[in-house]
Specification:
Layout: H1 3-9, H2 11-21, H3 46-59, E1 62-67, H4 73-83, E2 88-93, H5 98-108, E3 113-117, H6 120-125, E4 134-139, H7 140-144, E5 149-151, E6 154-157, E7 159-160, E8 163-164, E9 175-178, H8 196-201, E10 214-216, H9 226-233, E11 240-243, H10 255-266, E12 270-274, H11 283-292, H12 294-299, H13 305-312, E13 314-318, E14 329-330, E15 337-338, E16 342-346, E17 361-364, H14 366-370
Helix pairs in contact: 3-4, 4-5, 9-10, 10-11
Length: 389
Protein backbone atom coordinates (compact mmCIF):
# COMPACT_ATOMS: atom_id res chain seq x y z
CA UNK A 1 0.00 0.00 0.00
CA UNK A 2 1.53 3.31 -1.08
CA UNK A 3 1.03 6.65 0.69
CA UNK A 4 -1.90 7.75 -1.48
CA UNK A 5 -3.77 4.50 -0.86
CA UNK A 6 -3.01 4.67 2.86
CA UNK A 7 -4.41 8.21 3.14
CA UNK A 8 -7.43 7.32 1.02
CA UNK A 9 -8.22 4.25 3.15
CA UNK A 10 -7.73 5.80 6.58
CA UNK A 11 -8.47 9.45 5.85
CA UNK A 12 -11.28 9.74 8.42
CA UNK A 13 -9.15 8.29 11.23
CA UNK A 14 -6.22 10.47 10.20
CA UNK A 15 -8.44 13.57 10.12
CA UNK A 16 -9.87 12.86 13.59
CA UNK A 17 -6.38 12.31 15.01
CA UNK A 18 -5.03 15.53 13.53
CA UNK A 19 -7.98 17.57 14.79
CA UNK A 20 -7.66 16.11 18.30
CA UNK A 21 -3.92 16.69 18.39
CA UNK A 22 -4.04 20.18 16.85
CA UNK A 23 -7.53 21.58 17.50
CA UNK A 24 -8.42 24.51 15.26
CA UNK A 25 -8.63 27.89 16.96
CA UNK A 26 -11.75 28.76 14.98
CA UNK A 27 -14.60 26.51 13.91
CA UNK A 28 -17.42 27.83 11.71
CA UNK A 29 -20.68 27.55 13.59
CA UNK A 30 -19.03 27.17 17.00
CA UNK A 31 -17.02 30.39 17.17
CA UNK A 32 -19.49 32.41 15.12
CA UNK A 33 -19.52 35.62 17.11
CA UNK A 34 -21.49 38.45 15.61
CA UNK A 35 -19.66 40.74 13.25
CA UNK A 36 -19.67 44.51 13.83
CA UNK A 37 -21.76 46.66 11.55
CA UNK A 38 -20.23 46.85 8.08
CA UNK A 39 -21.27 48.84 5.04
CA UNK A 40 -21.08 45.71 2.90
CA UNK A 41 -22.29 42.20 3.55
CA UNK A 42 -19.67 39.40 3.52
CA UNK A 43 -20.07 36.86 0.74
CA UNK A 44 -19.91 33.14 1.41
CA UNK A 45 -17.04 32.20 3.69
CA UNK A 46 -15.78 35.78 3.94
CA UNK A 47 -17.66 36.15 7.22
CA UNK A 48 -15.87 33.16 8.75
CA UNK A 49 -12.53 34.46 7.43
CA UNK A 50 -13.18 37.83 9.08
CA UNK A 51 -14.10 36.22 12.40
CA UNK A 52 -11.11 33.87 12.32
CA UNK A 53 -8.65 36.63 11.45
CA UNK A 54 -10.10 38.92 14.14
CA UNK A 55 -9.78 36.13 16.73
CA UNK A 56 -6.16 35.56 15.75
CA UNK A 57 -5.41 39.29 15.84
CA UNK A 58 -6.72 39.56 19.39
CA UNK A 59 -4.65 36.66 20.70
CA UNK A 60 -1.49 36.61 18.55
CA UNK A 61 1.09 39.05 17.29
CA UNK A 62 1.18 37.86 13.68
CA UNK A 63 -1.70 36.70 11.47
CA UNK A 64 -1.73 35.69 7.80
CA UNK A 65 -4.60 35.47 5.32
CA UNK A 66 -3.84 33.28 2.29
CA UNK A 67 -6.56 33.66 -0.30
CA UNK A 68 -6.85 33.13 -4.01
CA UNK A 69 -7.28 36.13 -6.27
CA UNK A 70 -10.87 37.33 -6.11
CA UNK A 71 -11.63 36.13 -2.58
CA UNK A 72 -11.71 39.71 -1.24
CA UNK A 73 -8.57 39.86 0.89
CA UNK A 74 -8.77 43.66 1.11
CA UNK A 75 -12.33 43.50 2.40
CA UNK A 76 -11.42 40.74 4.87
CA UNK A 77 -8.41 42.65 6.21
CA UNK A 78 -10.28 45.93 6.72
CA UNK A 79 -13.23 44.14 8.31
CA UNK A 80 -10.97 42.04 10.57
CA UNK A 81 -9.11 45.10 11.80
CA UNK A 82 -12.44 46.76 12.61
CA UNK A 83 -13.84 43.61 14.26
CA UNK A 84 -10.72 43.23 16.43
CA UNK A 85 -11.06 46.80 17.65
CA UNK A 86 -7.93 48.40 16.18
CA UNK A 87 -8.12 52.18 15.92
CA UNK A 88 -4.93 53.16 14.06
CA UNK A 89 -4.03 50.88 11.17
CA UNK A 90 -1.06 51.24 8.84
CA UNK A 91 -1.49 49.62 5.42
CA UNK A 92 1.57 48.75 3.30
CA UNK A 93 0.66 47.87 -0.28
CA UNK A 94 1.94 48.07 -3.89
CA UNK A 95 1.73 51.56 -5.46
CA UNK A 96 -1.05 50.65 -7.89
CA UNK A 97 -3.30 49.48 -5.02
CA UNK A 98 -3.10 52.59 -2.82
CA UNK A 99 -6.29 54.20 -4.12
CA UNK A 100 -8.08 50.85 -4.20
CA UNK A 101 -7.28 50.34 -0.51
CA UNK A 102 -8.63 53.79 0.37
CA UNK A 103 -11.83 53.15 -1.57
CA UNK A 104 -12.31 49.69 -0.03
CA UNK A 105 -11.86 51.01 3.52
CA UNK A 106 -14.34 53.85 3.03
CA UNK A 107 -16.87 51.47 1.47
CA UNK A 108 -16.50 48.81 4.17
CA UNK A 109 -15.87 50.25 7.66
CA UNK A 110 -18.48 52.68 9.05
CA UNK A 111 -17.06 56.01 10.19
CA UNK A 112 -13.51 55.10 9.18
CA UNK A 113 -10.97 57.58 7.93
CA UNK A 114 -8.53 56.64 5.17
CA UNK A 115 -5.52 58.76 4.32
CA UNK A 116 -2.91 58.15 1.63
CA UNK A 117 0.56 58.81 3.05
CA UNK A 118 3.32 59.94 0.72
CA UNK A 119 5.62 62.05 2.90
CA UNK A 120 6.71 62.75 6.45
CA UNK A 121 4.30 65.70 6.56
CA UNK A 122 1.43 63.33 5.78
CA UNK A 123 2.52 61.09 8.66
CA UNK A 124 2.63 63.99 11.10
CA UNK A 125 -0.82 65.16 10.03
CA UNK A 126 -2.21 61.80 11.13
CA UNK A 127 -1.69 62.87 14.75
CA UNK A 128 -4.45 65.47 14.26
CA UNK A 129 -6.95 63.08 12.68
CA UNK A 130 -10.03 62.43 14.79
CA UNK A 131 -11.62 59.65 12.72
CA UNK A 132 -11.90 56.31 14.50
CA UNK A 133 -10.74 53.94 13.16
CA UNK A 134 -8.05 55.53 11.02
CA UNK A 135 -6.35 53.72 8.14
CA UNK A 136 -3.07 55.19 6.86
CA UNK A 137 -2.15 53.78 3.46
CA UNK A 138 1.44 53.94 2.20
CA UNK A 139 2.95 52.38 -0.88
CA UNK A 140 5.94 50.12 -0.42
CA UNK A 141 7.97 52.39 -2.72
CA UNK A 142 7.44 55.39 -0.42
CA UNK A 143 8.22 53.24 2.59
CA UNK A 144 11.55 51.98 1.28
CA UNK A 145 13.06 54.85 -0.73
CA UNK A 146 15.79 56.85 0.98
CA UNK A 147 18.20 59.61 0.04
CA UNK A 148 20.98 59.11 -2.48
CA UNK A 149 24.46 58.76 -1.00
CA UNK A 150 28.04 59.10 -2.20
CA UNK A 151 31.48 58.38 -0.71
CA UNK A 152 32.76 60.83 1.91
CA UNK A 153 36.54 60.81 1.55
CA UNK A 154 39.48 63.15 1.19
CA UNK A 155 42.33 62.33 -1.14
CA UNK A 156 45.85 62.71 0.22
CA UNK A 157 49.17 62.20 -1.48
CA UNK A 158 50.67 58.76 -0.93
CA UNK A 159 53.72 59.33 1.27
CA UNK A 160 56.31 56.98 2.79
CA UNK A 161 59.15 58.16 5.07
CA UNK A 162 58.44 61.72 4.10
CA UNK A 163 58.68 61.13 0.36
CA UNK A 164 55.98 60.95 -2.30
CA UNK A 165 55.21 57.51 -3.65
CA UNK A 166 55.03 57.17 -7.41
CA UNK A 167 53.18 54.82 -9.69
CA UNK A 168 55.39 51.94 -10.80
CA UNK A 169 54.35 52.28 -14.47
CA UNK A 170 53.92 56.03 -14.99
CA UNK A 171 56.31 57.32 -12.30
CA UNK A 172 53.66 59.88 -11.33
CA UNK A 173 52.68 60.64 -7.68
CA UNK A 174 49.19 59.44 -6.79
CA UNK A 175 46.57 60.13 -4.14
CA UNK A 176 44.85 57.75 -1.69
CA UNK A 177 41.24 57.93 -0.41
CA UNK A 178 41.28 58.73 3.32
CA UNK A 179 38.78 59.24 6.14
CA UNK A 180 37.59 62.88 6.38
CA UNK A 181 37.57 62.69 10.19
CA UNK A 182 40.92 61.13 11.16
CA UNK A 183 42.62 61.23 7.73
CA UNK A 184 43.60 57.55 7.98
CA UNK A 185 43.73 55.60 4.73
CA UNK A 186 40.45 53.87 3.85
CA UNK A 187 40.90 50.14 4.45
CA UNK A 188 38.56 47.16 4.49
CA UNK A 189 38.21 44.76 7.43
CA UNK A 190 41.26 42.82 6.28
CA UNK A 191 43.44 45.91 6.05
CA UNK A 192 43.41 46.04 2.24
CA UNK A 193 43.32 49.59 0.76
CA UNK A 194 39.97 50.55 -0.75
CA UNK A 195 39.57 52.20 -4.13
CA UNK A 196 37.04 54.99 -4.86
CA UNK A 197 34.97 52.53 -6.93
CA UNK A 198 34.75 50.09 -4.01
CA UNK A 199 33.72 52.92 -1.67
CA UNK A 200 30.96 53.90 -4.13
CA UNK A 201 29.46 50.40 -4.22
CA UNK A 202 29.02 49.80 -0.49
CA UNK A 203 28.67 51.91 2.64
CA UNK A 204 31.76 51.49 4.80
CA UNK A 205 33.20 52.92 8.01
CA UNK A 206 36.69 53.97 8.89
CA UNK A 207 38.61 51.13 10.55
CA UNK A 208 40.45 53.63 12.77
CA UNK A 209 37.80 56.03 14.13
CA UNK A 210 34.60 54.26 13.06
CA UNK A 211 33.14 57.30 11.28
CA UNK A 212 31.07 56.68 8.13
CA UNK A 213 32.79 56.97 4.78
CA UNK A 214 29.60 58.10 3.03
CA UNK A 215 27.39 61.19 3.01
CA UNK A 216 24.11 62.37 1.53
CA UNK A 217 24.23 63.36 -2.11
CA UNK A 218 22.56 66.76 -2.47
CA UNK A 219 22.13 66.22 -6.21
CA UNK A 220 19.60 63.46 -5.56
CA UNK A 221 16.05 63.70 -4.20
CA UNK A 222 15.69 64.93 -0.62
CA UNK A 223 13.71 62.21 1.11
CA UNK A 224 13.75 59.88 4.09
CA UNK A 225 12.36 56.32 4.15
CA UNK A 226 8.91 56.46 5.73
CA UNK A 227 9.42 53.04 7.33
CA UNK A 228 12.42 54.34 9.28
CA UNK A 229 10.52 57.48 10.29
CA UNK A 230 7.64 55.42 11.69
CA UNK A 231 10.08 53.32 13.70
CA UNK A 232 12.02 56.29 15.08
CA UNK A 233 9.34 58.96 15.59
CA UNK A 234 5.97 57.17 15.61
CA UNK A 235 6.68 53.84 17.30
CA UNK A 236 3.51 52.81 19.14
CA UNK A 237 1.28 55.25 17.22
CA UNK A 238 -0.17 52.49 15.04
CA UNK A 239 -1.58 49.36 16.66
CA UNK A 240 -1.84 47.17 13.53
CA UNK A 241 0.19 46.76 10.34
CA UNK A 242 -1.52 45.29 7.27
CA UNK A 243 0.93 44.16 4.57
CA UNK A 244 -0.61 43.38 1.20
CA UNK A 245 1.01 41.12 -1.45
CA UNK A 246 3.44 40.01 1.23
CA UNK A 247 4.98 37.26 -0.92
CA UNK A 248 6.94 40.02 -2.67
CA UNK A 249 8.87 40.66 0.57
CA UNK A 250 10.50 37.24 0.73
CA UNK A 251 14.03 38.18 -0.39
CA UNK A 252 16.62 38.78 2.30
CA UNK A 253 18.20 41.88 0.78
CA UNK A 254 15.26 43.51 -1.00
CA UNK A 255 14.60 47.11 0.03
CA UNK A 256 10.84 46.57 0.27
CA UNK A 257 11.32 43.45 2.41
CA UNK A 258 13.61 45.34 4.78
CA UNK A 259 11.12 48.22 4.99
CA UNK A 260 8.30 45.79 5.80
CA UNK A 261 10.44 44.23 8.55
CA UNK A 262 11.18 47.68 10.00
CA UNK A 263 7.47 48.50 10.14
CA UNK A 264 6.68 45.13 11.73
CA UNK A 265 9.12 46.00 14.53
CA UNK A 266 7.49 49.40 15.07
CA UNK A 267 3.87 48.16 15.20
CA UNK A 268 2.69 45.72 17.90
CA UNK A 269 0.65 43.42 15.62
CA UNK A 270 0.63 42.57 11.92
CA UNK A 271 -1.81 41.10 9.41
CA UNK A 272 -0.25 39.85 6.18
CA UNK A 273 -2.13 39.11 2.96
CA UNK A 274 -1.03 36.99 0.04
CA UNK A 275 -2.35 34.75 -2.69
CA UNK A 276 0.80 32.63 -3.00
CA UNK A 277 2.54 32.21 0.32
CA UNK A 278 5.37 29.99 -0.95
CA UNK A 279 7.38 30.36 -4.13
CA UNK A 280 8.14 26.65 -4.44
CA UNK A 281 11.27 26.59 -2.26
CA UNK A 282 11.63 26.46 1.51
CA UNK A 283 13.97 29.45 1.42
CA UNK A 284 11.18 31.69 0.09
CA UNK A 285 9.33 31.21 3.37
CA UNK A 286 12.16 31.93 5.79
CA UNK A 287 12.55 35.72 5.68
CA UNK A 288 8.84 36.14 5.03
CA UNK A 289 7.94 34.38 8.27
CA UNK A 290 10.97 35.76 10.12
CA UNK A 291 9.83 39.35 9.58
CA UNK A 292 6.23 38.85 10.70
CA UNK A 293 6.05 35.80 13.00
CA UNK A 294 7.74 36.18 16.43
CA UNK A 295 7.88 32.40 17.00
CA UNK A 296 10.21 32.02 14.02
CA UNK A 297 12.51 34.76 15.32
CA UNK A 298 12.71 33.05 18.71
CA UNK A 299 13.99 29.83 17.12
CA UNK A 300 16.04 31.08 14.17
CA UNK A 301 18.53 33.88 13.75
CA UNK A 302 18.51 36.36 10.88
CA UNK A 303 21.27 34.49 9.06
CA UNK A 304 19.89 30.98 9.68
CA UNK A 305 18.39 30.54 6.22
CA UNK A 306 20.60 27.51 5.51
CA UNK A 307 19.52 25.88 8.79
CA UNK A 308 15.88 26.52 7.89
CA UNK A 309 16.33 24.97 4.44
CA UNK A 310 18.14 21.93 5.84
CA UNK A 311 15.21 21.34 8.22
CA UNK A 312 12.21 22.14 6.03
CA UNK A 313 13.52 21.96 2.46
CA UNK A 314 15.21 19.54 0.11
CA UNK A 315 18.92 19.68 -0.69
CA UNK A 316 20.71 17.95 -3.52
CA UNK A 317 24.40 17.14 -3.11
CA UNK A 318 26.22 16.68 -6.41
CA UNK A 319 29.71 15.25 -6.92
CA UNK A 320 30.65 15.92 -10.54
CA UNK A 321 32.39 13.08 -12.32
CA UNK A 322 36.06 13.89 -12.82
CA UNK A 323 38.11 12.62 -15.72
CA UNK A 324 39.42 9.21 -14.63
CA UNK A 325 37.79 10.00 -11.27
CA UNK A 326 40.69 12.33 -10.43
CA UNK A 327 40.45 14.51 -7.34
CA UNK A 328 41.14 18.22 -7.65
CA UNK A 329 43.37 18.27 -4.55
CA UNK A 330 45.68 15.78 -2.78
CA UNK A 331 46.88 15.86 0.81
CA UNK A 332 50.42 17.15 1.44
CA UNK A 333 51.39 14.56 4.02
CA UNK A 334 48.57 12.01 3.83
CA UNK A 335 46.42 10.14 1.36
CA UNK A 336 43.59 12.65 1.68
CA UNK A 337 41.85 13.51 -1.57
CA UNK A 338 39.38 16.27 -2.25
CA UNK A 339 36.49 16.06 -4.71
CA UNK A 340 34.39 19.01 -5.79
CA UNK A 341 30.84 18.86 -4.44
CA UNK A 342 27.96 21.28 -4.80
CA UNK A 343 24.83 21.60 -2.67
CA UNK A 344 21.72 23.01 -4.30
CA UNK A 345 18.24 23.59 -2.93
CA UNK A 346 15.47 21.71 -4.73
CA UNK A 347 11.78 22.66 -4.98
CA UNK A 348 9.41 21.57 -2.23
CA UNK A 349 8.99 21.75 1.54
CA UNK A 350 8.44 19.15 4.22
CA UNK A 351 5.04 18.93 5.98
CA UNK A 352 6.70 19.98 9.27
CA UNK A 353 6.77 23.60 8.06
CA UNK A 354 2.99 23.71 8.54
CA UNK A 355 3.54 23.96 12.30
CA UNK A 356 4.78 27.51 11.68
CA UNK A 357 1.61 28.34 9.71
CA UNK A 358 -1.53 26.58 10.90
CA UNK A 359 -1.77 28.38 14.24
CA UNK A 360 -2.10 31.88 12.79
CA UNK A 361 -3.11 31.45 9.14
CA UNK A 362 -6.52 31.71 7.49
CA UNK A 363 -6.80 29.88 4.16
CA UNK A 364 -9.54 30.84 1.71
CA UNK A 365 -10.34 29.54 -1.77
CA UNK A 366 -12.38 31.20 -4.46
CA UNK A 367 -14.84 28.30 -4.37
CA UNK A 368 -15.57 29.18 -0.72
CA UNK A 369 -16.86 32.56 -1.88
CA UNK A 370 -18.04 31.84 -5.43
CA UNK A 371 -21.27 30.15 -4.33
CA UNK A 372 -22.52 33.51 -3.07
CA UNK A 373 -21.39 35.58 -6.04
CA UNK A 374 -24.01 37.05 -8.38
CA UNK A 375 -24.50 35.46 -11.81
CA UNK A 376 -21.67 36.17 -14.24
CA UNK A 377 -22.16 36.74 -17.94
CA UNK A 378 -19.84 37.73 -20.78
CA UNK A 379 -20.90 39.55 -23.92
CA UNK A 380 -18.70 40.20 -26.93
CA UNK A 381 -19.19 43.38 -28.97
CA UNK A 382 -17.66 43.72 -32.42
CA UNK A 383 -16.50 47.18 -33.35
CA UNK A 384 -16.14 48.12 -36.99
CA UNK A 385 -12.74 49.38 -38.07
CA UNK A 386 -12.55 52.56 -40.12
CA UNK A 387 -9.65 53.04 -42.48
CA UNK A 388 -8.68 56.58 -43.38
CA UNK A 389 -7.13 56.95 -46.84
Amino acid sequence: MDLAQFIGTYREAITDKVIKTYPPLYRPGQNSHGLPALKRRPLGAQGDAVRAAALSLRTQQGTTVVGEMGTGKTFIAASSAHAAGFQRVLVLCPPHLVRKWRREVLETVPGAGAAIVGSISDLEQLRRHTAQPLFAIVSRERAKLSYRWKPAIVERWAVSTGRLLRDAETDVPFRLPCCPSCFAQALDDDGVPLTPDELARKKRRCTCCGEPLWQADSSGPRRFPLADYVKRRMKGFFDLLISDEVHEYKARGSAQGIAAGVLAEAVPKSLTLTGTLMGGYASTLFYLLYRFIPEVRSEFGYRDESRWVSRYGFLERTVPKQRNDDPFKDGRSSRRRGYRTSIQEKPGVTPAVLFHLIGHTVFLRLSDVASALPPYEEQVFHQARLQVL
